[in-house]
Request: fold
Amino acid sequence: MSTRSKELKLDYKKTFLIGFGFFASSLAWSVYNANVPLILEGYGLSTFVLGMIMAIDNVFAVIFQPLFGAMSDKTNTRFGRRLPYILVGIPICAILFTFIPWTTGLIALMAVVILFNFIMSTWRSPVIALMPDVTPSPLRSKANGVINLMGGVGGVLAFLLGGILINSFGMKAPFMFSGVVMIMAWALLYLFVREPAIMTKEEREKLEEKEKAEEGADKKSINKSLLFILLAIFFWFIGYNAVETYFTLYATNVLGVSKGTASMTLAFFSLALVVGAIPAGMIGTKFGRKKTIMTGLVGIIILFALQLFTNNINMVRILLVLAGLCWALVNINSLPMVLEIAKSSRIGTYTGYYYFFSASSNIISPPLFGLVHDITKNYAHVFIYAVIAFAIALVCISMAKHGEVEIDNEEIMREAQELDD
Reply:
């Protein structure tokens, strides 16, 4: 085996261990999005108000995730740049999350939810920035496939096992289960994950100056591509968030299934992401990230449009599986496109940009579709809404000219060697 091929082989063990942070985050968000709307529905709120409440938590993500991502770029402790945020944030979130269904009034519920989401926003960008910190650029789609595989497993546990727990023990059970799993994920990160060596302040300043000089005349074109990629991310999460937030209400009100069955049905989408995550990274590496994303978007548009023509729960599940595979093509390759434009000294900052645009969509989408539903009185229209959003995202991503691997072999080898050191 050549030195270069050895250096560019993805360290799957290290990547899987890092993925436990995203696993914990995805588990919590999936349980939150599937079950908090059902809790809020018990207060007799309109769908628009429900959507507004579901969006409030994301304000913290928009404000604080970019901030803490940038802060982690400049953090220097014996635990590293990213781990201090992760090791403090996860256990606090686990405790707060467990208390959500135990609240006895709307004000108390919102107080716990807002505090939970603030703490989540302090470690979300740092935990995602761990992956590119330890992964050479050409391998980041594959590595992101592994990370999202872990996130998909969290989603499957949330929807499938969460539905079983609700049917067997009530609404409190999936929140308690999630809290326990988050503590387990925290323990694995604490025991087994070590960050690469930290640069001194002088070394970081020299690297930043070098990277600014390398941007040169292409800076305007690169920034334009970054904007189109981020807009595409914004619009496809507009569509995705609406479906994730309102699917349980669609399933119970339109398909006529139980709350537990609605939650378990949504697990088919997450299960497909689990199956498709690593292959999606490989496809993006081989055929290009942009082409792979566009293919996935076209598939989702077609499949969500077909959802409008069936009320058969088994057919809905089949369409969700196929849509989940297409979503893997989109989701796995989008962050690596953003990070390809970022320089190594600003990975946390650009990860924050990614989550700023995705979280912004989470603020806008729930109340926006809630207003649509209050007018149309039909939860099935969430799929029309999503198709429009994904179509706009397709146009945006088609206009991006950067985001593929553009460094030469010598630079690839140097980057891999630095990470190994």
